[in-house]
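Today's session is about reading a structure prediction critically. Students often jump straight to the picture, but the first step is always the sequence itself: look for stretches that repeat, for charged clusters, for runs of hydrophobic residues. Only then move on to the predicted structure, which in these notes is written as discrete structure tokens rather than atom positions. Here is the chain we will use throughout the hour.
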Amino acid sequence: MSTPRFFLSLSLAGLLAACGGSSDDGNATGELTLQVTDAAVDGALQVVVQFRGIELHGPGGTQTYYYCEDASTGETVLSAAACAHPAPRQLDLLALTDGLTEFLLDGLVTEAGRYAWVRLLVDAEPDVRDSYIVMPDGEHELLVPSGAETGLKLNRGFTVPAGGTADFTIDFDLRKSVHDPLSGGVDYLLRPTLRIVDSAEAGAIAGEVDAALVTDGCTPAVYAYTGAGVTPDDVDGAAPDPVTTAQVKLDEETGLYRYKAAFLEPGNHTVAFTCQAAGDDPAMDDAIVFSGAATVAVAPGTVATHEFQASLP
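Below is the predicted structure for this chain, in token form.
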């Protein structure tokens, strides 16, 4: 499920640059859509990242696209050349959970073929309100080590089919990516653990969590791992690391606790529940307690159901 589309257009000059020339040169083209989603992190009220553009390394080399303001209409357009009026986009990643997405590229006509990598160009300058995080104690800068200079690079390649479409979703997973301030500091660090998923092939796992499992002081979450029968472990960069995590939220209308782990690749996944999600520091090996681990099969375009029930006495 996507949020309403952010209007983006591409000028004729930019389109020709994207395609490697006019249609007379024989270059085949396809359409590329990139969306961004997130798995939430506990404690934060907002996690805002400012994007100024995207780089793609494809058959014709590296092409950079910038978000710009059209001087005549005031609309945000996508330009294949640096612009006089930049219009960077600030996205609150916490608003993009439970399968919600926002478009970074929407139907971009580009050269067909194999693309080696994507780089997200972000703004995270010190003492500038570009990327930031809002915590209960107020707003803090969100710094991306080297990200402001080099961008956030995804090295997994993909193919844009000639005459067809390619649609991919980039998952930030803030539980893995947001790091507490360094000793004596106040600024949070964003070290994104990005993954890119074919949107058409992705599935999800969702369901209810027994209220008896959500005890006092609980920060509930469901962790999802690739493969069957995985012994669940915390987020620490070492196997087995979860491929994604999902917050467990109370549905105020029904009084039920629900979760949804979205954009999972087809195949078997292990899911497990924990009440200690807030204590999972991605920079450390934490002794997080899990329960109810189970294997669930995920199929393309479907939502598999799994319920977490409290054990009977």
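Discussion point for the tutorial: The CA atoms of residues 129 and 280 lie 28 Å apart.
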